[in-house]
Here is the input.
Amino acid sequence: MADSVVLHGVSDDLLRVAIAAHLSRYKGLSRVHTDSDLRVFLRWCAEHHLDPLTVQRADVELFVRRLEEIRRFKPSTASRRLSVVTGFYRTCVIDAVLDASPAAYVRRPPVPAESPTLGLSHLQFEAMIVAARTSANPFDFALVAMLGLLRLRVFEACDSSIDDLGEEHGHRVLRVLGKGTKLALVPLAPAVGRAIDRAVGDRVRGPILLNRNHVRMDRHAATRVSCSGRISRSHLCTVSRSLSSACSCSRWSRPPVRRSATSFGPLRKRPSRSRNQPTSLPTPAYRASIIARYTDGRGRQSWHRPVRPRVAGRAVMPN
Here is the structure.
């Protein structure tokens, strides 16, 4: 890690070793993102003439307040960057570089348990998929179908290659390398299969998604889809935030996915309900009205209307 960007310009040998030891605990994109967040903290220390190995708890508190009040970052972003700083000092304590961590008792910004990002409705996503299908670029439809119907993260969709397509138990599947280098076989819905076939064309190898330069599309190129006869950037960003994961990008998120043959995205139909079955837990008032409306005349509750025999052209209640 001597050539890492975060080590560039660091003169203290002990600090360089501590940074390299911490980054060596990660791999792949996790190392890149940790490198980026740690570089923000080291740059802040350099601007305030602070040694990262001698800072106090109050200094780390000022760094977090700067992220929230000056940079106007969301609590989730500030909490993530604080987690990187806390992990760095925890590694320093483990390696006996420091006796105690200055970030151990720093107040974390409160982060809600559920994401406030709103997803697309069925009609909105249908309009999005129609716009992608009518685009002149076949990779637009493939990208939106993989993000929305398969619920892939942005980096999972961009890293997919033609060699990852296969067949398992009679179903077309896509081999996806997810977070933590975990392999998963994702069944392809017919619409996604047609979109991928249209994007692949006559090619037999290489990436599934290509950018304008006919090289592998990355997560940055996925957000630079022009508005001239293609999908608007705002629509693509909305779909990526609410349906995909990157997403690999830290500001994108998605709900957890159970990757099975029946999990094809937001267009799944809800199970049918009985006509008289409530859609949620009944309240006491609702239960009382149901009991009053559906009764067999003997005080016994029933979910069905009683049969009313007709006498002389009118219905009477049974005894």
User: Anything to note?
Assistant: Residues 1-5, 238-280, 301-311, 315-319 have pLDDT under 50 and may be disordered. Residues 5-94 form one domain. Residues 71 and 269 are 42 Å apart (CA to CA).
